[in-house]
Design a protein that fits this description.
288 residues, alpha/beta, five-stranded mixed beta sheet, two-stranded antiparallel ribbon, 8 helices
Length: 288
């Protein structure tokens, strides 16, 4: 009996008003196809990633590698636009190498000569749609950032209203304690241990750690500013600046950022607008 691999990918893309198929549903369809056509499923590859937002899809690369090395004669995919968003080029290379790819939704089989042109055309069309969607998403997010709307789930200690503005949440006092303790000269590791001993809720549940403390202290959102990550590799947040170079407020109008913090050890006081920079400098001194 010939073998076939299944490649499954899940993201939030919708088709005809229906949310993208779950892994379980895709796998069931792939297994049904294999049984119907006399194949035995050798391996099921899975990526829980978007094809157009994530550059690296580990199992996708492995599935194609197995296909190119002829470890398996065929690969099943749910649909062309679930396969790759790099356009016709990547598909043509596989077809020219004699790889057999099944696209179940479109009922396309690269082993059928008349399907080859359709597969190439659909792959290029998927790339065009992906590029347009990516452009629209970037423009939408950029507009939201300029308007001071928080784009994702509210940070620890804050809550988001229907307009995307941030307000103090149930754990705001914990945020103030973290920043105050670091400002008082306690090392992040010491602050984390004290919070854990006092059974204070942490952002992810469980014990506090020094990294969590630093992320709160370094995050400009607690000063009331919109933030962005520098890159995919450098995800620590920095204050977002608009086209004019100005920072953008993300707190609701009536909501105050971190208050004036008086250091109990030094008897010093720093304005709210400078507190984040002052505390971050304290962290650098303590951890350098």
């Amino acid at each position: 009996m010939d073998e076939i691999d299944l490649y499954l990918r899940r993201s939030k893309i919708t088709r005809e008003g229906v949310e993208a198929l779950t892994f379980k549903t895709q796998e069931e369809r792939g297994l049904a196809w294999a049984e119907q056509h006399g194949y035995r499923v050798r391996k099921v590859w899975k990526d829980d990633l978007s094809a157009w937002t994530d550059v690296k899809r580990p199992d996708f690369v492995k599935a194609l590698g197995a296909l190119r090395r002829k470890e398996v004669p065929a690969l099943w995919r749910y649909a062309v636009d679930r396969f790759d968003r790099q356009g016709a080029g990547s598909v043509i290379q596989l077809l020219d190498a004699g790889a057999r790819i099944i696209f179940d939704y479109e009922r396309l089989d690269s082993a059928v000569p008349r399907d080859r042109e359709r597969i190439i055309s659909d792959a290029e069309r998927a790339k065009t749609v992906s590029d347009l969607l990516s452009h629209r998403v970037r423009d939408t997010k950029q507009g939201q950032r300029r308007r001071g709307e928080w784009l994702s789930a509210a940070p620890f200690g804050l809550r988001k209203d229907k307009n995307g503005k941030l307000h103090h949440g149930d754990d705001w006092d914990t945020v103030i304690r973290v920043i105050t303790d670091v400002a008082d000269g306690f090392a992040p590791r010491s602050v984390a241990r004290r919070l854990t001993d006092d059974r204070m809720a942490s952002p992810k549940g469980g014990h506090w750690n020094a990294s969590t403390v630093r992320r709160i202290v370094y995050n400009p959102v607690y000063e009331g500013w919109q933030v962005v990550g520098l890159s995919r590799k450098h995800t620590w947040p920095v204050a977002y600046r608009n086209e004019a170079g100005a920072r953008v407020r993300v707190f609701a109008d009536e909501v105050e950022p971190i208050p004036r913090i008086s250091s109990r050890r030094r008897g010093e006081c720093t304005p709210a607008t400078n507190a984040g920079r002052w505390v971050r400098a304290s962290v650098r001194r303590r951890t350098s």
